[in-house]
Specification:
426 residues, alpha/beta, two-stranded antiparallel ribbon, globular
């Protein structure tokens, strides 16, 4: 058996030895993969809270996992824990509650939500109460659980305690690229020789009334509520916005030499990571597409491959008019004449946009695509957009030879990350 396997830059090759997934399709990677490749949608009418008066009444909420209290931090923690336990068990690294490596977690931005604000306000004797007053109350002993629950690092700290990871856990939020950023940080820690194993998680349970209203004010959400399963239409001409969703994915990352030495099953390799900031606008993409183009090219260069080596692209593919157009422009520029022949599909057509978790979930699905040599479809593709002449794998999964896959994550504010995934090197 070969030792000291290195990439083209002389760095340790980073393998994936465990995968865990939770989405609105179900719990566990097997159930998720079966439904994803079957073209099943997890998007449905919202029942967790009233939607009367809201323009968007559908989402990919995970209602089959209880959490108390029902709020973004509690749900995000529960989703992450389930995904992490599945991934760690599959990897065989450490044991339950004793993971021998650092933790990198992508979590949603956190603030006290309306049900908790109302409860805090009702306990105050003031005639009027402001947000700062609520925060001060949350810091008192009586309301300490609120403060701890809604502290930004709180979710990550609790996960670290339950999973028994090493060192100070890292909580990060880079908008819709967060899950991919968590993977990149884990990869780089192994490449620097700081650890042989790392745990990267992306999680998000922040579908609530306030979030829906905020995204609606940005005209970012689909308002085609009937039927819910058809609301997310990436790359279609009649697309009208993304669908909010929840979920989590965990990857156990490991130095390939370390994994082989203990006889671990290699599920794939993180061959390259690329990033490029935009800073053009808080929500819009730069019209020249340079940040997206540069991000993809950086990932390919980091992996030591060329555009000719790319066999599949797992698109960011949100279904917003501008995002899909800019992603198509970036892909076309990088791949050139091959762009129309390289399959590109969007998982979000079925699971919705899982926000902070999206990059991790889609990286996990990309690894399963390589493992099974089967490409998930882009469902709800009935009205092609002539301005996006790409092979979006419409409506039905496709068997194909996939050696290298790209997973794109392009976040608000120009926070862009691309990952290159591959199978085990020989």
């Amino acid at each position: 058996m070969s030792k000291n396997v290195q990439d083209h830059k002389g760095r340790p090759v980073v393998a994936v030895t465990g995968i865990g997934i939770v989405t609105s399709l179900g719990i566990g990677k097997e159930d998720n993969w079966k439904k994803l490749t079957g073209g099943v949608s997890g998007i449905h009418e919202i029942t967790r809270f009233p939607t009367e008066g809201l323009r968007t009444r559908v989402a990919g909420t995970i209602d089959f996992i209880p959490a108390e209290p029902v709020c973004a931090p509690a749900l995000s923690e529960e989703f992450a824990l389930l995904a992490a336990e599945e991934a760690i068990a599959e990897s065989g690294v450490g044991s339950k509650g004793d993971f021998p490596g650092p933790l990198f977690v992508a979590v949603p931005p956190v603030e006290v939500e309306w049900p908790q604000r109302i409860e805090l306000a009702s306990a105050s004797n003031a005639e009027t109460i402001g947000y700062d007053d609520l925060i001060r109350m949350a810091e008192t002993e009586r309301f300490a659980p609120y403060y701890e629950r809604f502290l930004y690092r709180g979710t990550t700290e609790r996960l670290a305690d339950k999973l028994g990871t090493r060192g100070s856990p890292i909580a990060l939020s880079t908008a819709c690229a967060s899950g991919a950023s968590a993977i990149q940080l884990g990869v780089e820690a192994i490449q620097r020789g700081e650890t042989d194993v790392a745990l990267s998680i992306g999680t998000d349970g922040s579908v609530n009334t306030e979030a829906l209203i905020r995204f609606a004010l940005l005209s970012a959400l689909s308002t085609q509520n009937d039927p819910p399963s058809a609301a997310s239409k990436p790359f279609s001409k009649n697309r009208d916005g993304f669908v909010m969703a929840e979920g989590a994915a965990t990857l156990v990352l490991e130095n390939l030499d370390h994994a082989r030495a203990r006889g671990a099953k290699i599920l794939g390799v993180i061959a390259g990571c690329g990033e490029m900031a935009d800073s053009f606008h808080r929500t819009r993409s730069s019209p020249d597409g340079k940040p997206i183009i540069g991000c993809i090219r950086n990932a390919l260069a980091d992996a030591g491959i060329t555009p000719e080596d790319v066999d599949y692209i797992n698109a960011h593919g949100t279904g917003t008019p501008e995002n899909d157009k800019m992603e198509a422009k970036g892909v076309t520029t990088v791949l050139g004449e091959r762009a129309t022949r390289v399959p590109i599909s969007s998982n979000k057509s079925m699971i919705g946009h899982t926000l902070s978790a999206a990059g991790a979930i889609e990286a996990a699905f990309s690894l399963l695509t390589i493992q099974h040599q089967r490409i998930p479809p882009t469902i709800n593709y009935q009205v092609p957009d002539p301005e996006i002449p790409l092979d979006v794998v419409p409506n039905t999964a496709r068997d194909a030879k996939v050696r290298y896959a790209i997973s794109n994550s392009f976040g608000f504010g120009g926070q862009n990350v691309c990952l290159v995934l591959s199978g085990e090197p020989h």
